[in-house]
Every structure is written in C-alpha cells, then in structure tokens.
Amino acid sequence: MSATPSLLATETEDDLRAAVRSLLTTHSAADRVLARAESGAPYDRELWKTLTGSMGLAGLLVPEADGGQGAGHREAAVVVEELGRAVAPVPYLTGAVVTPATLLALPERTAEVSALLAEVAAGSAVAILAVPLTTAPGDPLPEVTTDGGGLHGTVRSVADAAGADVLLVAADSGLYAVPAGAPGVTVTPLTALDLTRPLAAVQLDGARGTLLAPAADAAPAVRAGLLSGAGLLASEQLGLAEWCLTETVRHLKDRHQFNRPLGSFQALKHRLAQLWLDVAGIRPAATAAADLLATGEGGPAEAQLAVAVAQVYASPVAVRAAEEALQLHGGIGMTWEHPVHLYLKRAKGDSVAFGGAGRHGQEVARLAELPAP
C-alpha cells in the first residue's frame, strides 16, 4: 500500500524557516553574493560558519549520538529551500545533505565513520562526495581504481570540491575518505554556468585515504546519498522559483508604462497567474519527497518515486520561473548588477543536477510500471 506523506509544515519547521530567512536577509544579500562570485572564493565561509557553528544546521541529518541535531530530511529541506531563495553560495546540499546521508546509509558505523560524521555536523570539515553533479542515484559511478593502496582516477564536475576539506571517493575497493590536500590529490576549478555552486575536477594519482566501507556497501550508500540530494534539490528549486515569482510581481507593480503599472496589463496578469499555479505545485511534490525520505514509510521504492516525481515537476518550473523573471524585468534584468541572472544560472544548473528531469522521468516510468517517455 502506498504511503501518505504529511504535506503540512510543523511549528518547528516554521520557526526554523523564519530563523534561516532572517539570517540570510542580512548575510546573503544580492550584493554580497555577487561580490563573492567576483572574488573567486569557492563559498561564503563567514555565512557557512554561522550556519554550521552558531546554528548547528550542518548536523540536522546526523544523530545526536554522533554530534548532530538528530532531526531529518524535513528540517533539512526547510534550510535548503531558504538557501535556494537566497542562492546562498555555501556547500549545504552537497556537504550537509548528500555526505551525511551517504555515511548514514553504510551498514556498519565504524569509529572512522562516526568521527567524520561528528566533523561534518560541527562544520569543522566540509566533506564532499566526489561524483559528477549530474550523476543520478542509479547511474554508474566514476571509475576510480586502487593500486598498491593508492587511488587512481579522475572525477569531473564535482560540485563544491574546490572548497572541500575531505573527499568521499567511491573506488573499486570501497568508499574512502581522502583529505583534499593529501599528496596525489589535485582539485582543479572549472568554469561553471552557476557562479554560486562551483565545479571542479578531482584527479587522484596514488592518493591514500581512510577506508570507510567495502565496495559492496559503498555503492548502495552512495545511491542513498544521491537520492537525498535529488529529493532536497526540489526544495532548493522551490525557494528560487518563489523568489523569482515574488520579485517579478513586485517589479511589475512598481514599474509604470503609459501611466499604468506594468502588472495591470492583462497579458502579464495571465502569465503570472499561470506561473503562480506552476510554482505552487512544487511545494507538495518537494515536501512529499522530503517526508518519505525522512520516514521511510512505504519502503525505498516509495521514496524513490516521490523524489523522481518531484524532480520531473520542479526542474522545468524553476527554469521557467527564472526565465520569466529575466524577461519581465526588462532591461534591468539583463544587467550584471541585478541578481536575477544568478537565479537563472542556478535554475539551469539544478535542471541537470542528480540526473535531471529526463533521467527522473525514466525512473517514474520504471517505478510506476508505465511506458518509458
């Protein structure tokens, strides 16, 4: 029997949303995000320190026994949504969702795994799973081999790797924690469309790390981590789409032409009304995915289907919301100083992350036993 996810926000989630939004209003304003993008820094370290140290948000998925908050995907989704609303340049989705979800999916909690979880929860180490950002939960992993105890291989387009302290590497012999500055590790920043989520190529040439799990356990754990990333990505897309809609409505109310607000023209009203309906539809899809990831009700297949449905719906809507925002802001929307281009680039980048809508559409067809699109 299919599980019925809870789609209503709890009081705890509302309070968390208010606290994170208040922080980002002052610490991740558009001018600050643009300045960081021009600086070449991989992410906003001051904001990350506040999120992880002062607020403890990096440990939401980590159990209290391992130094975390012992919350779940629902609470983490709230944080991801607000970070998406601000296109905040921090490695939260990759470092505080995908990584702990991967480690927690390992069947054996060794001392090394617990120690790394504690560092991730405290924000004292940014640990990034070394797979391409476009990797879907069921895709083959990059080929990294082990020879004489050293790791060899190249992984391209790894999100947030440039600012990582630790890299989680899935090799033919297991899952390894490799210090990013270890001998034999080369992290080369790449030119990415999304300036707020930098990509890098990771080259391993005899690098050595700590074995966290054998190969048989590593692959399912990595899939679980990527599934969590894909599920909560829908919450990020919700946040950025809502910002685009809200700011576009505000602009069309304030901007006048022929002595009338632009928003009073019927053609624009219809476009925005349809966009509102589309954006509003992301929330139940994203919430359902986060809820089933948190509770596990209905089994793994239910969570996989909810995540796939959320991505099939949220990805194109977020892109269209950003495109509409850019067009309807007119000439000012085309300028570097206006932040709308950051949202369009993030939406475009998100549309191919963790497999993209096309790959997840195939997953919906498979899980629902429908003809493939």
Automatic annotation (TrEMBL):
All copies of domain Acyl-CoA dehydrogenase/oxidase N-terminal, residue ranges: 10-96
InterPro entries named in the record: Acyl-CoA_Oxase/DH_mid-dom_sf, AcylCo_DH-like_C, AcylCo_DH/oxidase_C, AcylCoA_DH/ox_N, AcylCoA_DH/ox_N_sf, AcylCoA_DH/oxidase_NM_dom_sf
Record keywords, A-Z: FAD, Flavoprotein, Oxidoreductase
SUPFAM superfamilies linked to this entry: Acyl-CoA dehydrogenase C-terminal domain-like (SSF47203), Acyl-CoA dehydrogenase NM domain-like (SSF56645)
Pfam families, A to Z: Acyl-CoA_dh_1, Acyl-CoA_dh_N
Keyword Flavoprotein among UniProt keywords: yes
Requisite cofactors: FAD
Domain Acyl-CoA dehydrogenase/oxidase C-terminal, residue spans: 224-358
Family in the record: Belongs to the acyl-CoA dehydrogenase family.
The name this protein goes by in its record: Acyl-CoA dehydrogenase
UniProt lineage: Bacteria, Bacillati, Actinomycetota, Actinomycetes, Kitasatosporales
